[in-house]
Amino acid sequence: MLVVIAPDGFGGTLTAPQAAAAIAEGWARGAPGHRLRLCPLADGGPGFVPVLHSALGGSLERRQVTGPLGHPVEAVWLRVGDTAYLESAEAAGLHLVPAHQRPGVCETTTTRGVGELVAAAVAAGAREVVVGLGGSATTDGGAGAVAALAGVDLSGVRLVAAADVENPLLGPHGSAAVFGPQKGADAAAVDRLERRLAGWADELAARTGRDPRGRPGAGAAGGLGFALLALGARTTSGAAMVSKATGLREAVSGAGLAVTGEGSFDWQSLRGKLVTAVAAAAAERGVPCVVLAGQVAVGRKQAASVGVEEAHAAAEHAGSVEAALADPAGTLSALAEDVARQWR
């Protein structure tokens, strides 16, 4: 049986290629008779550019830009013909903020570097700029990016926001309420961020004549999705874009099983994250899909609603989250070995 192994990255502990390799290593021990095809993926967050580079070729361009804390960082973008692929996490990612500085940092971090990357791509002749959204340390609604783009002629440039979530900008499912706590914001900080984002939305909508605050993906990357939409971008699913570029559907069509995964398989995973794209591709071809995640926080019925037959947690297999994080690759590999035995 052919098993397609197509995970996302695992939240700062394993990249998508590392996760795929760990799963494959364990699966080969548990089911040595299976053939394995590794297809590491991304959904717009960290890993978006490297995965597309592997699939599409092109050239990687380096640029020093403003990081989320205001200090210079080196970021990479991908040039394929007249299309530029950028990853917001390269310039504004949470991984660029030291752990001890993260509590509450999303009140002061900036997306300015993302705007600088867009400006660099346009200056280099890009006529289409695709911005992968996800993994950010920011909740500035894209204000920093808009400021960096002041004076940049975007006429004739197609902007594409490749989102990893479907959240709107504001409200209980918005950027501050849902993602603020993940970036160290307490309840009071979430309230402040919500008010700030609402005021910024009013300002930018008046400036551009577009008000996309309620559209799916507007809340992605701390509201950077909203800013790009207000500047005229169209939205697309980052997971679907990467799946198409990597030939996921073709790979799954000849498989007996699809295995995917991410750091946390939770309710957000059901709203546009990569695992749903893999499960959908598998379901279209009658192929079962299994999720191996760091943690699992959805029930069997919820998982089944998006085409996932089984979901297994590395933390549960290891005995605790701490034990799983102590050896992410080893724990994931051991989990894959046990699950493989069930599918042997």
Features:
single chain; Rossmann fold; 2 domains; six-stranded mixed beta sheet; five-stranded parallel beta sheet; 15 helices; globular
Task: Please explain how this structure is put together.
This protein has 344 residues and is α/β, with parallel strands linked by helices. Helices cover 42% and strands 18% of the residues. It folds into two domains: 2-39 and 247-343, Rossmann fold (3-Layer(aba) Sandwich), CATH 3.40.50.10350; 48-238, Glycerate kinase, domain 2, CATH 3.90.1510.10. The strands form three sheets. Strands 3-4-5-6-7-8 form a six-stranded mixed sheet, with helices on both faces. Strand 3 (59-66) and strand 4 (72-80) form a beta hairpin. Helix 7 packs parallel to helix 8. It is globular, with a radius of gyration of 20 Å. The model has no long low-confidence stretch (mean pLDDT 94).
Q: Secondary-structure map with pairings?
A:
Blueprint: E1 2-5, H1 16-30, E2 35-38, H2 48-56, E3 59-66, E4 72-80, E5 83-87, H3 88-92, H4 112-123, E6 128-132, H5 143-148, E7 158-163, H6 175-179, H7 187-208, H8 220-230, E8 234-237, H9 238-246, H10 248-253, E9 257-260, E10 264-265, H11 274-284, E11 289-293, E12 295-296, H12 300-305, E13 310-313, H13 314-318, H14 321-326, H15 328-343
Parallel strand pairs: 1-2, 1-9, 5-6, 6-7, 7-8, 9-11, 10-12, 11-13
Antiparallel strand pairs: 3-4, 4-5
Helix pairs in contact: 1-15, 2-9, 7-8, 9-11
